[in-house]
Amino acid sequence: MLAQVSPWYAHAAQRLTTAPAHALTPPARMEWTTHPGLGPGAELLGRDLRGKRLLELGCGPGHNVAHLAHHHKAPTTGVDLIGLQVRRARSHYGHITGTTFSAGHALHHLQATTQTFDAIYSVFGAIGLVPPALLLAEISRHLAPGGVLAFSLPHPARAGRHPSPDDHPREDYVTMPDRTRHPIARWEYDAHRWAAHLSRTGLRITSALDLRHPRLDPWPTTLLITARKR
Ligand SMILES: C[S@@+](CC[C@H](N)C(=O)[O-])C[C@H]1O[C@@H](n2cnc3c(N)ncnc32)[C@H](O)[C@@H]1O
C-alpha cells in the first residue's frame, strides 16, 4: 500500500529541492497576499508592535515572522505543521533576534501552551484549514484583552467560485512548486460567516478586505479579515 504523504509535507520537500534553505535578510514588508506590495502590511496587527508578543499559525518559511521580529522588534513565534518547513524557517531566519519557530498543529500548539499573545495571525496558513469553531475558540483563549486576530485566505469567490452555503469544509487543492495539485479540505466562508463564528468565541470582526491585483486578477483572490478580542 502506498503511504499517504501530507500535501504540506510534499510542498515543503519540493521547495527545499528547488531552493535549498540558507540565511536570508528579513523582508522589508509584511505580506498578506501572494502579490508583494498589495494591500496593508504589519500595521493591521497594531500601530506600535515593539515588544508585543505575536504568533503566526502556519508560518511556512517564516518571512513574516522575521519581518515582525526584526523591523518591529516584536517577539514572534511561528508554528507550522511540517517539521521540514520549520527547519527551512530556522535556516532562513533562526539568526534573527526575537524569532521562535516551532513544529506542530496550530490547534495542538495552542492547547498545549499557557502563553497569551497581543496578536495572532495566519497568512494562507492554518485558519481555513482547521475546523474554525475549534481553532477560533483556542485563539480567543490565548489573546490578551483587546488583542488582534488577522488572517488572509484564498478568496471564497476566487475564479468565479461561490462561498460555502454552510459550515462544512470543501475540497480544494494545494498547487505544488512543480504545478501538480494535491487535494485538501478547506473552510471557504464569506466574511459574514466568519463574523458569526468569530462572535461565538468572543471576537468582534473589525474589517474584511477583498484583495485582488488591479491588473492581473479579474476576481478577488484574497480575503483578509481582522478581529479584536472583546
Ligand atoms: C500556503 S502555506 C503559507 C505559509 C506562510 N504563511 C506564507 O505566507 O509563506 C500554508 C502553511 O500552513 C501550514 N499548515 C497547514 N495546516 C496547518 C496546521 N493545522 N497547523 C499549522 N500549520 C499548518 C503548512 O505546512 C504550510 O507551511
Automatic annotation (TrEMBL):
Domain Methyltransferase: 55-147
One MF term in the entry's GO annotations: methyltransferase activity
Gene3D superfamilies: Vaccinia Virus protein VP39
InterPro entries: Methyltransf_25 (IPR041698), SAM-dependent_MTases_sf (IPR029063)
GO biological process: methylation
Xref: Pfam families: Methyltransf_25
Entry keyword set: Methyltransferase, S-adenosyl-L-methionine, Transferase
Protein name stated in the entry: Methyltransferase type 11
Species name: Streptomyces katrae
